[in-house]
Amino acid sequence: MTAPCRSQTVVLQWAALWGAGVNIQQLRYFCSVMNAGSFSGAAREANVTVQAVSKAIGELEAELGEPLFVRRSKGAVPTSFGLELSRYAQQALEAFDKVGDMFEARRTDAVKAGDTFRVLLAVPYFSNHRIVCAGLERFLSKQLGTKVSFGLCMGYEAVPQLLSGDLDALITIGEYSNPLCDSVRVGTLPVGVFLSSKHPLRKKKLVTMGDLAPYPVCHAEGLDDFNETILNLYLRCGLASKVVPIRTQDEVKHFVMEEHGYTMGVGIPAFSISPSWSMLRFVPEDDIPVSVCAVSAKDHKSEQYLAFEHFMLKGFSRVLSLLGT
Predict the structure, then answer these.
(1) What is the pTM of this model?
(2) Distances in Å between the alpha carbon of 86 and those of 74, 83, 285?
């Protein structure tokens, strides 16, 4: 049997890694280092720490069994293997992004079709939201026996759609009250604190509200001023951190990476805005589970919505298993 050539070996190695579930972020960091010529340049481009890039590249090299870069004081020089591999890495990223675009397009088309059960979740956008939304779409479609469109939104964006009938259900993290809507508590989720890998608290496994008091916390405009979110719940229960209003994802990243700020969110790693951030949990005495609510228009509930509400009340634990809790 003829031995595979070098390029065939590269393809086979990438295929094996992909099948093993390589983190797509590793590929992004690899391509960023190739383009920037240094780990620090790649870190600036991705708005993460140099340590995060170095760790991801190190893990990738360990999987491949060969070095991808020669580390030097003024940059990183790709090895011959790294140069050859970069072509396939870039192709993999482009293919991954095209798949993501396809999912978005299909969701949009499904909503326009009119025979789709439409659900929006009021949370900030997180790093792999497309994968999570696609997984929830498939899962709920199977459970409800109908096509489901699942996406993210700011809370205020969803209410007019609920009232007009363009949206079937809104899921809020935290209680929501509106005389024009019904809100049903379907379960609870754990709470997490998200902060950068250089934050003074990063090495703690569990934190208290007192630990967090010296550091500012993010107030997400359009979300934290919409309902009883995790932040509002903890502020009401005594959290003493300075509250800083934040409008955009870029502002959030700068706040967390450069100002020792932190965000509060669902305590599931998949919901982190950045894969390089650390997630901490609260000590038991400060751990307050947050309600998950299904919100619908008071005067308009389809048969599909009633089936959805019934499933969420009975089968919320299965949703948690899907999300990795």
Answers:
(1) 0.65
(2) 21, 5, 49
